[in-house]
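From: lab user (bench 3)
To: helpdesk
Subject: output format question, protein + thiamine diphosphate

Hello, I'm new to running complex predictions and I'm not sure whether the block I got back is the full result or only part of it. Here's what I submitted:
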Amino acid sequence: MADTTLSLGKTNLDFFAQTLIELAENDRDILICTSDSRGSGRVTPFAEKFPQQIVEIGIAEQNLVGVSAGLSSMGKKVFTISPACFLTARSLEQIKNDVAYSDHPVKIIGISAGVSYGALGTTHHSLHDFAVMQAINNIDIVAPADNFETQKVIQAAINHPRPLYIRFGKKAMPHLHNVETYFEIGKAIQLTPNQDSYDVVFIAIGETVAPAFLASQDLVSEGLKCCVLSVHSLRPFDELAVRQAVEKSKVVITVEEHSINGGLGSRVASFLMQAGINRPFKIVGIPDEHTVTGSQGEIFKHYGISPQGLAKTATQLLEQR
Amino acid sequence: MISTSDHLISREKTALLEFKSIQYRKTILSLIYSAKAGHTGGSLSCVDILNVLYNQTMNITTKNFGDIDRDHYVHSKGHSVEALYAVLLDQGFYTIDELNTIEKYNSPFIGHPTRSIPGIEQNTGALGHGLSISVGMALAAKMDHRDNRVFTIMGDGELTEGSIWEASASAANYKLDNLVAIVDRNTLQISGRTENVMAMESLDEKFSAFGFAVRHVDGNNVGELAALFDTLPFEEEKPNLVLAHTIKGKGISFMEDNVGWHHRVPTDEEYALAIQELDLAEQKVENSNG
Ligand SMILES: Cc1ncc(C[n+]2csc(CCOP(=O)(O)OP(=O)(O)O)c2C)c(N)n1
Ligand SMILES: [Mg+2]
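Helpdesk reply: Thanks, we reran it on our side. This is the complete output you should expect:
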């Protein structure tokens, strides 16, 4: 194992909440809508500072999204915050019709996404949100990997012209980028140095970018050439960056905290297949089964979403060629 | 509170139920304390209701569990799963060793009820589902001319889910007097007082207007609960709605009516204090009943 250590930042959600306070100082049109979720959304300090800029809906996620759409249609900059599991399942019709189809640029913030809730179980996991959002036209989809990507996406979100879904986990994230890194919604970020060819390319999203990066460092220490792409945006999707990385590589691994059906892996596979680019390919995520029970870390480990698991998958894929 | 004098249960029975409530509270706290996770306040507020349902009112046992004619229970406020775990443990559905795997890797005992656990028949955890499922179960019983009943406990914060009111309309429409919906009216949810988060009073008038036969009860008083449930069904052809007035965190002085204890885990010191209080309560019940 390479002893790469990344310095630890805050949870992306805490960083989001802090950034939003900074932005709201100068913009009275910024509103937060919650469904008994201000604590879990880390926006209690926001509520104390700007009591006029938070709308509490109670435990009623459908109404939450409908009201948000109405507020947005009247010019408010609405951040709608609720656990991703409820927001993208229970309120899906409101997201589809009242937000996306009606083109009201609500910022739908899904918190504690993926398996962040660990042993609270399947009712609280959101392993479907990328899939359903990708099947709905006119909503952009972003899952930031670290505090830097979080800050950038929130700054961009304020005046983003289209509906936007942003997905956050729950745990503190290591810093992956330096402050000069270029960020734009829809443009993937390469974490590794540019080379003429690679043995392995990891294409990861959100909070699985860190384990993918650490896996790549292990492989590099064993003499392999790796590329790691942080695809923070599933829509717009950066086909060019994916194509450029994959064309130079021997094998491709996608990584996500989502069902292996309908998420990043499917998106990349569908693109590559239709572009006629063929490589040994593995989608790492949560398989189509009753999710194993345990903490987020235990679930990750079980399904190989860990530096060790991903390095092993890469080695196997290279051997099988 | 309704007058329950016509349906008094015996002093011995009441004492036994009171004793069980204390044991259940100890189990709830030890589960949350050792798992370092759980929903403390809401489990402590609804456990007396579950106690009476399982030990007095419903005919659900390990023996008849596979029998569709028995009564049925749906834990709509699924986050308060520790209360259900404690009661089902006492009913013999699983062992303490099995339950002690709670929250661990690959354990079926997770933070919400699942059907992989003996004694649990519906998966819950997302609020606002239990009443609809219960309507379906009660409707099936009516269709097949069975006289068993379906019970469910909902949180009062949960009542803001629109689906609750859709389910309410259907319960009355199908005249489900075999449906017993119980509201754990502890007046708190995560963000504060239910009336401050989203005002819903008058709940009595709302549920009555939807067609329920509504009754009020002290939801932490096992004697009153047992007496009230003895009068089911409350009215012919009307679904039953019990507004069970409870105290969130009931039984532990420093947790009672304190919003912070929704899902807080006791520290070593708090746990010791809590068990001490429950030991005292146990002595009191024993003394007053010789
Ligand atoms: C659909 C849904 N939205 C949000 C939650 C998160 N949540 C869990 S418990 C809770 C508060 C419940 O309050 P209440 O119903 O009053 O329960 P109690 O006070 O009995 O614990 C919330 C919002 C959830 N479990 N399901
Ligand atoms: Mg409550």
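A quick orientation on your result: The mean pLDDT of chain B is 96. Let us know if anything else is unclear.
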